[in-house]
What does this fold into?
Amino acid sequence: MWSPVSDKYPSESGRRRFVKGIVGSAALSSVAAGGSLVLDTATSSTGAGGGTVEYVGIRNTDGPAPRGLPIVPLRVTDSGHLEGRWPDPETITKRDGTEVTVAREDVGGITYDTRWFQYCGVQSLPGIAPDAEADNSFRVKGGYDWASSLEQGAKVAVEDFEGYEQWGNGIGQDGLGMPLNATWRTPEEGRALSVEILRTPELPRMIAGEGPYGNLSADVRSFLDAATAQDCMAWVDKCTHFCCVPGFKSSEYPGAEDAVYCQCHQSVYDPFTPMKQSFVALPRTD
It folds into this structure.
């Protein structure tokens, strides 16, 4: 079974301000959504690291969440451990002459930009600054009964997901993959970013566009091919509605049995139908 982790809300004092922005975003996005590209407009001003950004996320299919959860590109190290990718930082000059530090790179033909993670208080985490020194290894956080034997804080290894092709927890369909909560971008001081990892045998079919995945766009499939490894994918596990912590196969709520479900307000995300989306990233606090 799955159990929610403790960091339901970000700890910074500006929560009232960001909640107001998210409520506005939810209302506006219901008007702006259309076609294959979802335009999610958050009520926040641009600033250092802010502004409109396009990203790839697992699709929101139900509930009040205004948009999907951003995917974290990953790689497998020579030692068999999983780590998230973080682009090299660079300083650019904006049109108004100000200089800002950014971190972005091409991943499978799509620009992976670390502004993907600047929402819901995440932008205030020290490890999310483009030039921050932080640990890119995914580290065990747990969240599922099967992971109780794993050491908390240990690096996540591909071999930890033994039996992922058959795994089930009594909810929905067995064999869709094995999930794990983890931390990423761990700084020397302060909180890390929370992510959920899924090792799923469906990834090769998603990348190839086979069977039920024929509607995945070619650019998203190219991104998945470059952003995943050994059947492993990851996304930020902060609900885009009110920043609660959702979980894969965590509820028998109708339509969520084989999806990522947020127990707070019944938002549902489908990891098997990622898509391009956009939103107005909240500016960094630095």
